[in-house]
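Dear colleagues,

As part of the handover before I leave the project, I'm documenting each prediction I ran so the next person doesn't have to rerun anything. This entry is a single chain, and its sequence is reproduced below.
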Amino acid sequence: MTAGPSRCSVLGVGVSLVDMDRAIAGIDRWIAEGRRDYVCVTGAHGVIESQSDPELMAIHNAAGLVLPDGMPVVWMARALSGQPVERVCGFDFLPAFAAHSAGKGYRHFFYGGAPGIPEALRDRLTRAYPGFEVVGTLSPPFRPPTPEEDAAMVGTINAARPDVVWVGLSTPKQERWMAGHRDRLEATVLIGVGAAFDVGAGVKTRAPRWTHNLGLEWLYRLINEPGRLWCRYATIVPAFLFLAAGQLIVSRLTRGSRSG
């Protein structure tokens, strides 16, 4: 795990013990220092995917920040660390950082989403936060790009000279992309926010606020996109509950034996 805020291992994924303010302060520090790094915004989906994918686990643990996206991960981090941890999800972090950086001169780039999505996101955020500067947008092909296409997109991003590249791909695609491109891009920070592109662009709606703190936002998404999400959640939810319960039991037994 890289230096930065303290972390707690949630099923092997080092989750940063942060809240919104500490996460934003971390990005400010990277930009001031010119440090290149990437941010994974990770919920139960990313944690469970990592259980059978050592490369994805390593990508998470090499990130400068792993923001807890989803209350189950937050609850686990609190229980295991005994420290205050708040949910910092992509839906909230993107507009919060846009508002924060509007007067700081940071340059932003949106990479991801279907054609038209990053442009709609740019337009909505620049209207909402005057001074928020977006210097470029790109919608990559849905299929894997050819080496020539990938090199051209890297060139386009670097030519725009962004400080922050927001990556709106799905998990684990966006995590692999950030890890594979961190050393090829001149931007200070890459931040993977997934579906926040669609919500921020206004093409999808977010779950009602009452679902957020109850950890039920996934259920709202499943009801609205059953065909795409059914198989994912049918695996993730029971797997996370089972494995998390096991980790909590082991943690408590270990603490009990040490205190005894």
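Residues 7-212 form one domain. Residues 11 and 47 are 7 Å apart (CA to CA).

All the best with the project,
I.
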